[in-house]
TrEMBL record:
The active site is at H303. Pfam families: Carn_acyltransf (PF00755). Coiled coil: none annotated. InterPro entries: Carn_acyl_trans, CAT-like_dom_sf, Cho/carn_acyl_trans, Cho/carn_acyl_trans_2. It comes from Desulfonema magnum. The keyword rRNA processing does not apply. GO terms for molecular function: acyltransferase activity. This is Acyltransferase domain-containing protein. Residues 11-557 form the Choline/carnitine acyltransferase domain. Keywords: Acyltransferase, Transferase. Belongs to the carnitine/choline acetyltransferase family.
Length: 571
C-alpha cells in the first residue's frame, strides 16, 4: 500500500517571488487597469517588506515538519470553520448503477455494498490496498500517489467544539451505525479480525427495517452551525449517560449507513437526496453511505481528513459484485438500538435545526445536464485537452449569462507529493480572454481555433504548475494565516483582488474523472458550483446555485459547448 510513499517528494515551498508573480498573472485578466495598478503595488510592497519575514517563518515550519508547510494550516482551515456541514461543506458523490444489483432486494443490495466496504477497510488496515497510481499524459509513465489519507476514512469523526472542532480516528472500530427513520442502531461487523458475511448483514438489515416507527431526527443537530452544535452536544452528554454513550458509539463507528425511503427517479433527484437530505443523517462522520430502495447509493463526505479523489478508488473497489474474502465470520453480535433521552430543550433545538436546514435547502437550486453531442474522444481527436475545452465553455457561458468575465476556480489533486492534498487555481487567463473576444471579432474559424489552442495550452500549463507543487492559492493562504496569528495588517490581503476575486471565486468547479458525478458547495453567497465528468462519449455536469439561475447557466453551457465544437471542427 505504501510502496511509493518514501520515494514521493515533499511538497515544495514555492519562492515568494514566484508566488507573487503567479498571483498577479492570475488576477490580471479579472481586473481593470486602474484596479491592477493598485493590486500590483500592494503585492510589490508585500514582496519587498513583511512578506520576506513571513516566508522565512514558513521555511522554518517546512524544515521542522515531516508533513508539509501547509498541513497544519489546512487542518485548521477545516476545523475552525463554523459553517453548517450540509450544503456548505460536505460534498456527495453518486455510485454508478450496476446491473448485477438491479434485481436484488433492498437489504441484500445494502449488505453487498457494506460487505465490500468492509473488505476495503480491512485492506487498508492490513496494508494490502493497492497503491494509487497516476498515468502521465505521455501514457507511458506511472506516478505513485500519497496514501496517508486512507487511514482517516474509517472509524473517524469530527467532534464539534466551541472555537475549533476536533478530528478523531479510532483504529479498532468493529461496528457501523445504521440510521433508519431517524432511529440509530449499532451494527457489529467485525469479530476477532474477521468480517461479517453478506447473508448475516442482510438479515440484520431486514431486522432493522421491520416495522420501525419514526424517531426524532437527532442527526439534524449535526447540520447546525458548529458552535451551536458543540454547545448542544456538551449539554446532551452532561444530562444523560445514555446520550453520552450513544454519542460515543457513533463517534467510534467505522462509517454510517443511511437507509432512506425516498425513490429518486433521476440523476438530479439522486444528487439532491444525497446533497440536500438532512433526515437520517449524521454529518460529522466522514463516510455516510446513503441507500434508497431503488438500489441507488451515494457517499456524503465530511472533508477534514481526506479528499474526494479517494472516493474514486473506494467506488471502484466497493461498487461491484461481491469479492471473495477469506477472513469472514457468521456470528457477530446483533444490532442494538441507540438510546436517547431528549428533554424539551433538546427537542426545541432539533426543531430549530430542521427549520434552518429546510430554509437553507430552499435557497439553493440544483440542475443536471447530460451533454451527449461529444466527449473526450472527440475533443482530443481535434488536438485539444478535454478538461481545458470544457473550462473554456464555462467561461464563455458565464460571460453570455452575466455580461462580464467571472472569477472561476478549478481543483487539482496533488497527491503526487507526500501529504499533498489539492490546490485550486483561477481558470481565466489572458489567453482565454483573447480567445473569447475572437469568437465575435475574428473573420474565420481557423483564426478562432488558433486562439482556442493557445487558451487550452495556457489552461493545461496552470494544471501542470499545480501538479508540480507551484502552489499560489494555498501558499498565500499560509502566509496570510501567519500574518493574522501575529496581528499583522497587510494591504495585499485587504485588497479587492485578493479578498473578493482570488479567495471568493464566483464559480467553483471540480471533477473526479470520467465516471463519478458529484455535487459540492460553492464559496460565495451568490456563486455557483459546477461538478462534471467527461467520459469518452459525453459530458455530465450539474450546477448548484442560490441565484435561481441554474437552468439559464446550463443552457448557456450547452450552447457554448456546441459553439466551441463548431470552431474546433476546422482541425
Amino acid at each position: 500500500m505504501f510502496r511509493f510513499q518514501e520515494t514521493l517528494p515533499k511538497l515544495p515551498l514555492p519562492s515568494l517571488k514566484k508566488t507573487c508573480e503567479g498571483y498577479l498573472n492570475m488576477v490580471r485578466p479579472l481586473l481593470t487597469e486602474s484596479e491592477f495598478i493598485i493590486t500590483r503595488k500592494a503585492v510589490m510592497d508585500f514582496h519587498q517588506g513583511v512578506g520576506k519575514q513571513l516566508q522565512n517563518q514558513l521555511k522554518m515550519i517546512d524544515l521542522s515538519t515531516n508533513t508539509s508547510y501547509l498541513h497544519a494550516f489546512m487542518e485548521d482551515n477545516y476545523l475552525e470553520n463554523r459553517s453548517p456541514l450540509p450544503v456548505n461543506r460536505n460534498p456527495v458523490t453518486l455510485a454508478e448503477p450496476i446491473s448485477e444489483y438491479s434485481n436484488l432486494t433492498f437489504p441484500h443490495f445494502v449488505a453487498n455494498i457494506v460487505h465490500n466496504t468492509l473488505i476495503f477497510y480491512m485492506n487498508i488496515k492490513n496494508r494490502e490496498l493497492s497503491p494509487d497510481i497516476e498515468i502521465g499524459k505521455d501514457k507511458g509513465h506511472l506516478y505513485g500517489m500519497c496514501m496517508f489519507q486512507y487511514d482517516k476514512m474509517f472509524g473517524s469523526t469530527r467532534i464539534p467544539c466551541i472555537k475549533r472542532d476536533i478530528f478523531q480516528v479510532h483504529n479498532n472500530s468493529v461496528h457501523a451505525i445504521v440510521i433508519y427513520r431517524n432511529v440509530f442502531y449499532t451494527l457489529p461487523l467485525i469479530k476477532e479480525g474477521k468480517i461479517s458475511v453478506v447473508r448475516e448483514i442482510e438479515q440484520k438489515i431486514k431486522w432493522i427495517i421491520k416495522d420501525v416507527p419514526f424517531g426524532p431526527p437527532v442527526g439534524v443537530l449535526t447540520g447546525m452551525n458548529r458552535t451551536d452544535w458543540a454547545i448542544i452536544r456538551f449539554y446532551m452528554a452532561s444530562v444523560s449517560k445514555k446520550n453520552k454513550r450513544s454519542l460515543e458509539l457513533i463517534d467510534k463507528a467505522l462509517f454510517v449507513i443511511c437507509l432512506d425511503e425516498t425513490f429518486p427517479y433521476s440523476l438530479e433527484e439522486e444528487l439532491k437526496n444525497g446533497f440536500y437530505g438532512f433526515q437520517n443523517r449524521w454529518f460529522d462522520k466522514p463516510i455516510q453511505l446513503i441507500f434508497t430502495p431503488n438500489n441507488c447509493w451515494s457517499f456524503n463526505m465530511e472533508h477534514t481528513g481526506f479528499d474526494g479523489y479517494l472516493k474514486v478508488k473506494f467506488f471502484r473497489e466497493v461498487n461491484r459484485k461481491i469479492q471473495g474474502y477469506k477472513q469472514v465470520v457468521t456470528t457477530c453480535d446483533p444490532p442494538k438500538k441507540l438510546q436517547w433521552e431528549l428533554n424539551q430543550k433538546v427537542l426545541k433545538e432539533i426543531d430549530r435545526a430542521s427549520i434552518a436546514l429546510e430554509s437553507l435547502n430552499a435557497r439553493h437550486e440544483l440542475m443536471v445536464l447530460e451533454f451527449k453531442e461529444f466527449g473526450s474522444d472527440w475533443v482530443e481527436s481535434h488536438g485539444l485537452d478535454s478538461d481545458a475545452f470544457f473550462q473554456l465553455a464555462i467561461q464563455l457561458a458565464y460571460i453570455r449569462l452575466h455580461g462580464h468575465i467571472g472569477s472561476i476556480s478549478e481543483v487539482v489533486g496533488t497527491r503526487n507529493f507526500q501529504y499533498g492534498r489539492f490546490e485550486t487555481f483561477l481558470t481565466v487567463t489572458d489567453e482565454s480572454v483573447k480567445f473569447i473576444k475572437t469568437i465575435s471579432e475574428a473573420d474565420s474559424n481557423e483564426i478562432r481555433y488558433s486562439y482556442l489552442k493557445r487558451a487550452v495550452n495556457a489552461h493545461y500549463q496552470n494544471i501542470l504548475n499545480c501538479k508540480q507543487g507551484n502552489y499560489i492559492r494555498f501558499h498565500l493562504f499560509a502566509l496570510r494565516t501567519l500574518a493574522l496569528y501575529q496581528g499583522l495588517a497587510i494591504d495585499m490581503f485587504q485588497d479587492n483582488a485578493y479578498k473578493n476575486i482570488f479567495c471568493q471565486p464566483i464559480v467553483c468547479t471540480t471533477s473526479l474523472g470520467p465516471r463519478y458525478i458529484s455535487c459540492s458547495p460553492f464559496v460565495t453567497a451568490h456563486g455557483y458550483s459546477i461538478n462534471y465528468t467527461i467520459s469518452k462519449e459525453k459530458i455530465v455536469l450539474n450546477v448548484l446555485t442560490s441565484e435561481q439561475r441554474a437552468e439559464e447557466f446550463i443552457k448557456e453551457i450547452n450552447l457554448s459547448l456546441l459553439e466551441l465544437k463548431n470552431i474546433a471542427e476546422v482541425k
